[in-house]
Design goal:
alpha/beta, Alpha-Beta Plaits, Rossmann fold, 2 domains, seven-stranded mixed β-sheet, 9 helices, globular
């Protein structure tokens, strides 16, 4: 463990992503409970990062336990006797991980007005541009993934001055910061990963929006935030299997007429998301498509 509390290396677990949304949700929840923070979604794989253990005997024990938990959740279930490992793992040093984030990262224009840039790049802006300076640190969210870009493009037309919003799974804080720079008054950002919370706070300070961003290190429950006043809008860029059971709670967290931006959804999953949103009294309003990913806006009836 380094002096800053960040591990010197990480155990990276890679699991096949089930096509069935319910099974996928259970796999994600299992990995989140194990890792203690977010799960990265890459095409047909799910990745979890665990702080490196100094005890080499603990890794086989962990892999064996996790394999037993996940084997029946894959679709189709994995045959325990086929000899193919269910979970692939590798070690990655923190410095290598940090440098890999920087590779290829540069200023990127998103939508009409937003420009996302890491702090080490020089940026040329046009009149009316809104600059978002984002250093991911240990968090997800740099506008390098289509789901983040889809959310940002949709937010441009949804955020109104004075809005009070929620950001579920804020990661680097990029969506919350964008909303504040677009005119929102206050954003409650939920994130279960302590390192992501730290990154989001640092990014908020860099962008001058710390006063408007309230970061809570907690997981959004099925009822979102019980007892909280309804929000004008909610952003949720998380895995679709996690979104599905939470749609009714997200609706209850919105004022009538409020908006909900959803992402982390594959195009093949759109029918199930739209159907569940309809049942939750959320009316589909707009969409954004990039590659195989889909983001959508819903309005609370």
């Amino acid at each position: 463990m380094s002096r800053s509390g960040v591990p010197s290396r990480w155990l990276v677990l890679e699991v096949p992503r089930p096509e069935d949304p319910e099974r996928s949700s259970l796999v994600v929840e299992t990995l989140m409970d194990l890792a203690g923070h977010g799960v990265e979604e890459r095409d047909d794989r799910l990745l979890a990062y665990l702080p490196g253990s100094d005890d080499p005997e603990q890794v086989p024990i962990l892999l064996d336990s996790l394999t037993r938990q996940l084997r029946s959740l894959l679709d189709p279930p994995v045959d325990a006797e086929d000899g193919e490992p269910l979970i692939h793992h590798r070690w990655q040093s923190h410095e290598d991980w940090k440098e890999s984030w920087r590779e290829g990262l540069g200023p990127r224009r998103i939508g009409e007005r937003l420009v996302v840039s890491p702090p080490w790049s020089e940026v040329e802006l046009r009149e009316g541009d809104i600059l978002l300076t984002i250093d991911p640190g240990m968090a997800f969210g740099t506008a390098e993934h289509p789901t983040t870009r889809g959310c940002l493009r949709l937010l441009e037309s949804q955020v109104s001055p004075g809005d009070r919003l929620a950001d579920v799974g804020t990661g680097s804080g990029i969506l919350a910061i964008a909303a504040l720079r677009l005119g929102a008054d206050h954003v409650v950002a939920l994130e279960i990963d302590a390192w992501s919370c730290e990154a989001a706070r640092a990014n908020a300070e860099i962008n001058g929006v710390s006063d408007g961003l309230e970061i809570r290190e907690e997981r959004a429950g099925l009822d979102l935030l019980p007892g909280e006043a309804p929000f004008d809008g909610i952003m949720a860029n998380i895995e679709s299997g996690v979104l599905l059971p939470r749609l009714p709670g997200l609706r209850r967290g919105l004022r009538d007429g409020g908006w909900l931006v959803l992402s982390g959804i594959l195009r093949s999953e759109v029918p199930s998301i739209r159907s569940a949103a309809e049942e939750a009294e959320l009316e589909f309003e707009a969409e954004d498509r990039e590659e195989e990913w889909w983001s959508g806006v819903f309005r609370a009836r």
